[in-house]
Every structure is written in structure tokens, then in C-alpha cells.
Design a protein that fits this description.
- With 316 residues, the protein is α+β, with helices and mostly antiparallel strands.
- It has one domain: paralog of FGE (formylglycine-generating enzyme) (Alpha-Beta Complex).
- It is built from 5 helices and 14 strands.
- Strand 6 and strand 7 form a beta hairpin.
């Protein structure tokens, strides 16, 4: 699979292989703030002309899920700060010493100084030294002083997200659970609210407006991440299931293996090289990456982190 326009790989910056960071454990699940969804049968995937064939969105198939719990928002910087304060956990970006930042989030002086750190073939991405979840722009602005405590935590790898979930006695949602929650009970609709992107001209999610990747007009109110409860929730009470930040799912990615599986409590393959990402981000634009749809999917290696990947948590 080719790397997505939205998700550069750690290997693009010749990252060294790190030992897996220690994972804090909790025996009792902390369900504070989570919503219980009833599960049941739903139609997963898409055969729309908008679907990316290499992503394996189709075919549409019936999937049956048992009840489960899921957070209505992505994990915030404030919540991740509690985790770090309690465990002294260091993310993989902190241990690598850098993470990927989109050029639109960098100061002009940074872009000039870091020109050699552009990602080949994805030149709007920079490998930025010092970019971490607490310093998302790789400069002296931290999440608190930048007013981002109620924004989704970013620059977290799949391994980091799984560690946070384990600390709370939880897990990452499966890809099937994520899509069930995103659809909010609607059948085969493009977005969590229906088929029209901006009904009656109203912005329903945080994506790129303007000319990608040069200029984001911010017509939806944001030129980067938005607070996690921005925009209306869907019928299940889920916020920002599309746009804002990509979200790690529990599953390994494969473009077609799921087609051969049964339909009960569907999960991904038992092994792989990349983990599933869902929902698109503030960088998605119809001209290049319209993956801000309920069925859209992409993937990245478990050690990769960027300024537009976050996660939410779940429990059986």
C-alpha cells in the first residue's frame, strides 16, 4: 500500500527502531465519560465512486456487534496530561526526538530553517525536532499556552494510544465499532449526519477549505485542530467522527482480508505492518484526500506520529 497523503510513515525520516515503551496496566476499566452503544447489525463499508479501491472500503457487508462502550470524543491534551503525570510515560515522538508537522502549522521561520526536513513526495510534511504531544508545533508553544487543552492530543503513535487505553483499563475501538459509532444509526450515509457535506451551507466538520496544500481558508472556523466537542454530535452522541484528526483503531490493516471473514464482531487480521486509521482530519480536501467519510480508511505503522492523528477509547 502506498502511504497516504495524510499519514507519512516514521520510516520516511529514517527513524530508528525503538523498543516498545512500557505499558501501564489497570485491572478495572475506567468508563468515566464513555457512552454505551447497543450494537447489533449494520452495513459496513462502501461501494461508492468516492471510495479508494486500494483502501479496501468495499464490499458493503453486514456486521453484527455486541454492545460496547466508546468515548464520545477523542482523548484531549488535558486527559493525556493526567496519564503522563500519573505514569511518567514518554511517547515515541519524545523518544525519537521529532514528529511530523504539516507546513500550515509551522511559522515561516521554521519552514525556512527546516527545509531539509521535508518528506520526499509529501513535501507539505516536515520532520520537526522537538514536536511532541505537549509541543505540537515543535517550538516553545505548549498545549496549555496555545489554548489546546480541550483539543485532541496529537503526535501519539498507535503504541502510545494503546498505552493510554491500557492505563484506563480500556482498549482502542475495533474498526467495526468505530464505523458503527460514526454512522449513528444511519444506513449507508456518507457522513455521520447524512449525504450532504454542508447541509444548507452549514459546516459539520473540520476539514480543509481552499486550495490543498497551499492555503486553508478556515471557513469552518479552524486551520488546525478544533476542540473535541466542536460541531454537532451524531445521533449516538459522537463528536467529530470525521475531520479534525485521524483516529487509531485496534485493527491491523489489510485492504481485502476482511472480505473473507465472518460477520460477527468483525475484527481485522491477526498481524500486519500497519494499523488502521479512521475518520480523516483537518487536512483532508476533496481535491486530494476525501477520506472524511464514515467508510473511509487508511493506515500507518504503529510507531508513526503526526500533528493530525489522535484516538478515542473503548471497552467491551
Amino acid at each position: 500500500m502506498k502511504s497516504s497523503c495524510c499519514t507519512p510513515l516514521a520510516s520516511h525520516a529514517n527513524a530508528s527502531v525503538l523498543d516498545a515503551p512500557p505499558v501501564p496496566q489497570s485491572s478495572a476499566p475506567n468508563l468515566t465519560g464513555l457512552l454505551r452503544l447497543e450494537g447489533g447489525s449494520f452495513l459496513m463499508g462502501s461501494e461508492s465512486a468516492e471510495a479508494w479501491p486500494q483502501d479496501g472500503e468495499g464490499p458493503v457487508r453486514e456486521v453484527v456487534l455486541p454492545p460496547f462502550w466508546i468515548s464520545p470524543t477523542t482523548v484531549t491534551n488535558a486527559e493525556f496530561l493526567d496519564f503522563v503525570a500519573a505514569t511518567d510515560y514518554r511517547t515515541e515522538a519524545e523518544r525519537f526526538g521529532w514528529s511530523f508537522v504539516h507546513h500550515s502549522q509551522l511559522k515561516k521561520t521554521q519552514r525556512s530553517r527546516l527545509a531539509k526536513n521535508r518528506v520526499t513526495g509529501l513535501e507539505w510534511w516536515f520532520a520537526v525536532e522537538g514536536a511532541t504531544w505537549w509541543h505540537p508545533f515543535g517550538d516553545d508553544r505548549d498545549a496549555e499556552t496555545a489554548g489546546l487543552l480541550n483539543h485532541p492530543v496529537v503526535h501519539v503513535s498507535w503504541n502510545d494510544a494503546a498505552a493510554y487505553a491500557s492505563w484506563r483499563g480500556l482498549r482502542l475501538p475495533t474498526e467495526a465499532e468505530w464505523e458503527y459509532a460514526a454512522r449513528g444509526g444511519l444506513v449507508q450515509k456518507t457522513y455521520p449526519w447524512g449525504d450532504e457535506l454542508t447541509p444548507e451551507g452549514k459546516h459539520m466538520c473540520n476539514i480543509w477549505q481552499g486550495v490543498f496544500p497551499k492555503k486553508d481558508t478556515g471557513a469552518d472556523g479552524y486551520r488546525g485542530t478544533a476542540p473535541v466537542r466542536t460541531f454537532e454530535s451524531n445521533a449516538y452522541g459522537m463528536h467529530n467522527m470525521v475531520g479534525n484528526v485521524w483516529e487509531w483503531a485496534a485493527d491491523w490493516f489489510h485492504p481485502s482480508l476482511h472480505r473473507a471473514q465472518g460477520n460477527t464482531n468483525l475484527q481485522g487480521p491477526p498481524f500486519g505492518e500497519r494499523r488502521v486509521l479512521r475518520g480523516g482530519s483537518y487536512l483532508c480536501h476533496v481535491s486530494y484526500c476525501n477520506r472524511y467519510r464514515c467508510s473511509a480508511r487508511t493506515a500507518n505503522t504503529p510507531d508513526s506520529s503526526t500533528g493530525h492523528i489522535g484516538f478515542r477509547v473503548a471497552s467491551s
